[in-house]
Design brief:
It is a lipid-anchor. Keywords: Hydrolase, Lipoprotein, Membrane, Palmitate, Protease, Signal, Thiol protease. Belongs to the peptidase C40 family. It is found in: Membrane. The protein has about 160 residues and is α+β, with helices and mostly antiparallel strands. It has one domain: endopeptidase domain like (from Nostoc punctiforme) (endopeptidase fold (from Nostoc punctiforme)), CATH 3.90.1720.10. About 40% of the residues lie in helices and about 25% in strands. The strands form two sheets. It has a six-stranded antiparallel beta sheet with strand order 3-8-4-5-6-7. A two-stranded antiparallel ribbon has the order 1-2. It is globular, with a radius of gyration of 22 Å. The N and C termini lie far apart (about 65 Å).
Length: about 160
């Protein structure tokens, strides 16, 4: 009987000794789930639009520019209204460092003296955008061209 009591007490104490999850743990889990859901929606958008050619001012599968693609993606996938131009898109939300990027953040590039480019961060140094040379595609922030042209990031 005493052995049974010791086993019961041991089981009870060991169950109580595990640390309860903290609000920050719950927040991390929610952030991870949100990031995965966002990335999934962005990958689906890529599948539907991959290769659609770049066209300045365009916003259809006949041709689309970078800011139009970002605006359309946020409206279609997340129900979020963004401004139409890169100049206005760079003013929304808040600044985020390159090391703190999460899926859905906007990444901006200075591609010329007065030319700007925008894409949507996917994770793992990848971003989705409408390229002037290859249309809608996924590129790497580590690519020598994009690495050199990186300017800033915003979280809408």
């Amino acid at each position: 009987m005493r052995l049974l009591f010791v086993l019961f007490l041991t089981a009870l104490l060991s169950a109580c000794s595990s640390a309860p999850s903290t609000p920050s743990d719950a927040g991390k889990t929610a952030d991870l789930a949100s990031a995965v859901a966002t990335k999934t929606q962005l990958i689906q958008m890529h599948r539907e639009w991959k290769g659609v050619p770049y066209r300045l001012g365009g916003k259809s599968k006949a041709g689309i520019d970078c800011s139009g693609f970002v605006q359309l993606t946020f409206d279609d996938r997340f129900g979020v209204q963004l401004p139409r131009t890169t100049a206005k898109q760079k003013e929304i939300g808040h600044s985020v460092s390159k090391s703190q990027l999460r899926p859905g953040d906007l990444v901006f590039f200075k591609t010329g003296w007065s030319t700007r480019h925008v894409g949507i961060y996917l994770g793992d140094s990848q971003f989705l955008h409408a390229s002037t040379s290859q249309g809608v595609m996924i590129s790497s922030l580590n690519n020598s061209y994009w690495k050199q042209k990186y300017w800033l990031s915003r979280r809408p």
